[in-house]
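Support case: user asked for a sample of complex input and structure output to validate their parser. Sending the pair below.
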Amino acid sequence: MKLYYFSEMPHHEFPDAEGDKYPSLRLELPNRFFDREKAAANYQRYLDEYEFADQAGFEGLMINEHHSTPSCSNVGVNMSAAILARTTRRAKILLLGNILPIEENPVKMAEQIAMADLISGGRVLSGFVRGVGVETWWSNVNPIHNRERFEECHDLILKCWTEPGPFRWEGRHYHFRHVNPWCLPLQKPHPPIWIPGTASPETAIWAGQRGYTYVPFLVPFDIARELFDYYRQGAAEAGRAVTPDNLGFLICAVTADTKAKAIEAGRHFVWRMGPTLRGPVEYFSPVGMRSRAGAQFALKARPRALSSMSYDELCDGHFIIAGTPDEVIERFARVQRELGIGHLLLEAQESRMDHPTTMRSIELMGEKVIPAVATL
Amino acid sequence: MPPREETISVGGIAVHTWVGGQGDPLLVLHGAGGNRGWRRWIERVAERFTVWAPTHPGFGRSGDADWMEGIDDLARFYLWFIDAARLRRPHVLGHSIGGWIAAEMAVMSPASMDKVVLVAPTGLKPETGEILDVFYYPPAQLVQMNVHDPKTIPEWDELFGRPPTPAELEIAVRNREMTARLTWKPYMHNPRLGPFLPRVTNPALIVWGREDRVVPAVCGEQYRRLLPNATLTVLDRCGHLPPIEQPDAFARLVVDFLSAPAATGSSSR
């Protein structure tokens, strides 16, 4: 099993009591709480940590994108991909990912991902996501069209990468009369495509049909297994075999020299489970963004909101793994046994987890955990 | 005369429609909350007019229209509906987004209708203030924001006094989704509607609640200024749902307006 390092690049630089005054940290916390000086320093720090994770032996460096939220100051996944393409040497760069439904120009997106792939020497793993509702509000793209735009944007990007230009694209949501990108990915026919999942059976089936790597995020094991079954259903429809290499899973994880230190560090993940997910359902799932089937599955998938769970409960449910390297190895092995996955994505820094703690965790993962789980 | 329910096919879409009353035809176009059926105000108005109250495509029990993109599509659709149902130049009354539909129909084809009643219509960008983002709030909270004072509403218990059944919830979600499809961007208005409104010389009545927290009452002034033959009536102690909040006063206003001999407005049609 391969491990991936991920930081949301949080901006938890305001008094929590201030954040509590608003219905949600997303969309509503006024950006006067954005500290420019600290953000400038944090970007340097977070990018240093990514570079260290590259050196430590992680298979990949995962980056993502959110907007209008202190939980994530990575506001441009292709920008950070381009930086890491140049500053790292060996790890894959996993963009998970570009938010397709809110994109207005898929041709430009295809070009930018290709450019990152070229600069990195072909290390890009190109994830595509539907986004959470907050990004729908941020972009003001109609949530009713979310799935349609996701699929059409995907189709156009793939066409940019695989079919010779110039050509014309007249879809329902995208219209380009002269498509002829003069930037194509190094990997042929194109970078591998990854798709995350939280609750949508349609997305799992869709990814399975195409043989994309499918990665449920922070769901209970039984729900992940059910989503993998949908994935296998889609794969079977297309006559594709499913191997562990098609399946991944995302959790939060940190390790330290002692159990006490690790448990203390792991508490920082509670912030991303609770306060940063607090808010009216309309913010996270605006009308029409989810199909009825998806909405029903979401209710089942989350009988209890992550935000309602204690730190101990989050650890018991394997949403957070915090321990010494040996303990972490044992828990990762359990995840692998439960789910049969080939890729484990580690959200490995959060909230106010400090730089030394983060660096030591990366170092210990590289020295002890990565080699141990490589054989699983 | 008790109302009847009809299904009228327009362009392949089955339109569930309440029909009842006597007299000249009046087409009633509902708001984002959906077709609330044969309410008290309609009963009063139906004593003098034959009311046709269709459920918009994509709403309630009417057929789907996922291909529609905006309120102007519904306006074209209802001009077709007038022909299909052989209404022959009906009066048109619309509430909220229904009022916006009526205004779009009027600028497209003023000769297709007689008088126009616009009740707290969306469609214009307010000169001051903003139209409430109805998709940003939970439906239960939205009901409260829609009205001035629930205690004064005679049909409150019947309409909002109990939790919705699963079937009603399903319809409420459907109504909300179709509203989002039609009104998301530009939000609840059409920048190109205002310049066309002076074409509409039909007699027009605009009704607003002074305490409307959804669509600022200033929009009523804007509509009145742009429509050459319009009057504006503002109801005190009333929010965004005048037909529900003050059914008797509202019905009187409508009947008086529609019954009055038209002084102007026919010459240019």
